[in-house]
Amino acid sequence: MSILPASAAAADYAAQITEYPSDTWIIADNTIIGMGTGREAMHQAVDAVLNVERFRYQIYTPNFGAELNNLIGKEPEYVESMLKRRISDALLVDKRILSVHDFSCEQTGIGIISCSFHVRTVFGTLRKEVELSD
Prior knowledge:
Layout: E1 24-28, E2 31-36, H1 38-51, H2 76-91, E3 97-109, E4 112-121, E5 124-133
């Protein structure tokens, strides 16, 4: 005997997964400069994910953004290892991103860590950089 009525167990309630196109408005210097697709849109999407602190703004879903701010002030060795994991975790949520690799982190000043990496997408590979400073 089922706990739910037969109507509630129907396939009509199955999750619907929707793939959205990569078309987006391209913003430069706080001005919309036109519509962009493909690689150009991916550059902007990756920048948006890396510049939004995860769980901070209610307008974004919990799987959007990166958890980077709480690394500020920690030991450089710890920050370097965590940056790789947190950047990968943040970006690989997007199905258009295939991998994040070739991380290169260095301390560029007192309390400043710069980390560059490649993001392989369905539109090609992008080179990105993140900088954390106290």
